Amino acid sequence: MDIRAEIDAIEVALRSRGTSVAALCRAAEIHQSQWQRWKRGEALPNMRTWQRVLDARVGLVSPMVDAAGPEAVSGVALERGTGS
User: Fold this and answer.
1) What is the CATH number of domain 3-74?
2) What pTM was estimated for this model as a whole?
3) Residue ranges covered by each domain of the chain
4) Secondary structure of the chain as H, E, C letters
């Protein structure tokens, strides 16, 4: 798991929807300085805390499909059909 790349992707999604990192941190119940430490690579979140961030992200920017595509969010490539 590349936390710094995930953080960058989350921040892009937040910005594209007019939501702040501060709002994400409040929703995830983490301090914004902790987010900054993760972003700088000074610390890594534990799995429980990171799951809270992911849950908060979905709540704030749902549907979580950005310019990178749905596979960037879910890790699973989705087929785009014709809708027949």
Assistant:
1) 1.10.260
2) 0.70
3) 3-74
4) CCHHHHHHHHHHHHHHCCCCHHHHHHHHCCCHHHHHHHHHCCCCCCHHHHHHHHHHHHHHHCCCCCCCCHHHHHCCCCCCCCCC
